[in-house]
Amino acid sequence: MVKLIPFIILVIYLAGVWKFVQGYNLTNFSRQLPTKLILSLLWPVLFIVNGSYRQNFQKALKGRN
Description:
- Keywords: Membrane, Transmembrane, Transmembrane helix.
- Helix content is about 70%, strand content about 0%.
- The chain has about 60 residues and is mainly α.
- It has one domain (about 5-60).
- Helix 3 (about 45-50) crosses helix 4 (about 50-60).
């Protein structure tokens, strides 16, 4: 069971990255590749500390403007 927890966390992290990348064009962020990559990989930290990022992340996940 203990070995399963890191796997579950990794799956949730990767799912968040994937969903954010798929809906990135619905956000207000720059369309440049480095920005997209950085914002995608740091999503858990940015989601917790930044309200604007949180709103844009939710737009990307829901797939609406």
